[in-house]
Amino acid sequence: MSGKFKNMETKLIHAGEPDPPIQGAVSMPIFQSSTYEYSGETSHKDLKYVRLNNTPNHRALHQKLASLENAEQALVASSGMAAISTTLLSVLSQGDHLLIQDCIYGGTYRFVTEDFPSMGISFDFIRGDNPEEWEQKLKPETKAIYVESMTNPLLQVADHPAVVKFARSHNLISLVDNTFTSPINFRPPDMGYDLSLHSCTKYLNGHSDVVAGAVLGRKNLIEKINHKLIRLGGALDPHACFLLHRGLKTLAVRVGYQNRSALQLAQYLEKHPAVSRVNYPGLESHSGYPRARELFDGPSGMLSFELRKGLDAAKAFLEKSELPILAPSLGGIETLVTRPATTSHYYMNPKERVKLGIKDDLIRVSVGLESTDELIEDFGKALP
Question: Among the options 105, 109, 203, 268, which is catalytic?
Fold first, then answer.
């Protein structure tokens, strides 16, 4: 199916759709059934059942997602963390070692630092743009390397071509969390990544009404992850599949606008006298700008910034701003603001957090679909 349609916008609408349409329905129906009649299947994995991730809603969604990043196969899960944890547990086992980027999503950080030790899995944190460090920390038992396309919340850009090359030269599995970038801006399997992970709660669904995750990549690895997911019970229910399927169809339109709007907001903040730092790879002042320009089709709708007057000023801004909603998560149609130190990275060791550059006064912004001019005006009124 992925080879039938050439362009992203067309794939989003037509890839994975039933052909012919079921009873003529233009929209994919919700198959709100946990159980399906036996019809002569000779293998347990061929039986249709929600927990086996193979109902009509799952299958349509898997085909559509795989087509977006030109992956061999895709799999959805009940949350982004279900996708991440199940994937890591599928490619790593007792005695194995993982190289993982140092500035990552707080949920991933907690899973690796708090759960891996009891499983006998070791790890080392690495900088995403320093291959020499990767070599130094490589061990005979290293099995995988894990990075983010753009880091949460500092928007750092890893040296992705180097990650793929390093993984191949050392027979490692390469994994990237592509949530911040989305398939509109970056398609990791095209670059050679083995696995691309998403919290579909964010950009892929885009409407702040679904919690879901996905992993895309090599067929043999996806099948292995699916077997683990079946045992762990992290299946996505049919109605959530339907909502995610529907949300995907507007992904190109949404992310295209968010790319443009976030860039204008970042440019405004960079020039504002109250702002001391803006983290956005679409700005020439950002350390990841050259790499982002080379690798990505857009700089994303995510940015973060710091104020010269520190934490009190950050708190005052969050109270005074009217258009953005003060809430965790990201990638929806509404602009969201949050302090990562109190939400996504709350459980990270405070000293480690500050060492990475995630200060208490750092404000993360997920730009939505509001008028860019009104958003900038509102930020201007709220800034000290």
Answer: 105
CATH 3.90.1150.10 corresponds to the domain 253-382: yes
Question: In the annotation, is 202 catalytic?
Answer: yes
Mention every residue, 6+ apart, whose C-beta is less than 8 A from residue 106: 152, 340, 343, 344, 345, 346, 347, 348
177 is catalytic: yes
Select which of 36, 51, 110, 289 is catalytic: 51
Which member of 11, 64, 143, 202 is catalytic?
202
Query: Both tokens of residue 216?
Result: 């895309």
Calculate what percentage of the chain has a pLDDT beyond 70: 99
Give 65-110 pLDDT, tens digit per residue: 999 999 999 999 999 999 999 999 999 999 999 999 999 999 999 9
Q: Please tell me the CATH code under which domain 8-248 is placed.
A: 3.40.640.10
Upper half-sphere CA count for residue 67 (Cβ side, 13 Å): 25
Strands 97-101 and 73-77: unpaired
Give the span between the Cα atoms of 245 and 204, in whole angstroms: 9
Residue 1 has pLDDT above 70, yes or no: no
